[in-house]
Task: structure prediction
Amino acid sequence: FETTPGFEGSDSAFSGNDRKPDDSPDSPDDTESPDEPDSSGDREDTYQNDNLPDIRLARPQKNLNKMNSTKLAKALILTFIPILLLLTAALIVFLAVRRIRFRRAFKKMLNAEPNEAVALMFGYLNMFMAACGLDISKIDALYSELNAEAVFSNHKMTAEQKEAMQAYIESEVDKYRSSRSFFGRLRDRYITCIYI
Result:
């Protein structure tokens, strides 16, 4: 049996584990060309443990992905909760400031001189009825004339006329308020600010 002189007994080309000794009965024939790669070595390597995935490493990777998604969810929650609280606080402050301004304007209207007070109250009545979806044309004609007199006449209005206009507005507001549900009244009072 003839061997290539460069490979005879050389450990540098093949390791002892990968290649069988040349004098073994299973050695390849002389018919095999020296240029062809030895496929038997490849078959042996595919079954070694080095080429198989390490299952122990794959499990921590799944756990790591779960941990990352949990951390991301916690981070998102911890980010959005303060933002939501800030927006809620801003809305509450906005509604409170709006309500305070409305109350001040209402007090100013009630404390004004009779001519100005009657005109302001009639304007408020128009805005109130429009906000509630009520028909403005159903305002009593007596109070429309009282408003016209307060706005266009040089005649000084009396305190009784001012009180009559105030009583009419309060009766209209009470009528509307009694027709509303509890939540409707809360909305009218604190969100849309259409009455005190």
About this structure: The CA atoms of residues 125 and 170 lie 9 Å apart. Residues 54-96 form one domain. The mean pLDDT is 78.
